[in-house]
Amino acid sequence: MSEFNTPTSSEVSAMIVKFDYPKTTQYTEIFSNFHLDRVVFRMLDQASGKDSVVKVRKDDLEGELEIEKIRGLVASYRFSGGHFDAVGVKRIDGKVAIEMPYLGRSLSAIGQDMDLDKYDGNANGFRGFSPGQIEDLLRRLDADQMHFADNYGLIHGDLIQPRFAPSNVVYNQGLNRLLLVDGEAMTLSTDE
What we know:
The protein is α+β, with helices and mostly antiparallel strands. The protein has helices at 9-18, 61-76, 107-120, 131-152; strands at residues 25-31, 39-45, 51-58, 88-92, 95-101, 105-106, 154-156, 169-172, 177-180, 186-188. The strands form 3 sheets. The chain has a 5-stranded antiparallel beta sheet, with helices on both faces. The protein has a 3-stranded antiparallel beta sheet with strand order 6-8-9. The chain has a two-stranded antiparallel sheet with strand order 7-10. A hairpin with a 2-residue loop joins strand 4 and strand 5. The termini are far apart. 24% of the residues are buried. The model has no long low-confidence stretch (mean pLDDT 86).
């Protein structure tokens, strides 16, 4: 039995229709997650070019708290030089769709692609970061997250799931930065 919940293509397509996204919108990626009552997918509006990630969950107090955390997190990336679309919210039948800008590919997905490239000999994929780039990326990630903690009183507490690479860290190629995603994993920061 898998530890992940991965909805089907038809389930995700039905959600796009249910939440009344434009008819020119199609999902491009479905993300596995650990919660049976949540669905996360990436979608692209062909007409506007808007690339976003949507998380559908129960519309309750925890959902409201997550919305506010995500809004703060996305807004904080202006400090990093990012200018992303605002977080959108749609509600229907006790569910909420939280629409966030697509921030980049997860380090897990990048690592899997690098492994596949090495296996099949295809040299078209991303070849990784140099030690200097890694050091720079981590230094800027630390600065970004300390800025976020100082301004919002929150810190990301869920970077690595057991037996998996960091799933909540994405690489934004345009900014050349690592960004954290998943507002649900934000928790109050302490002196530790």
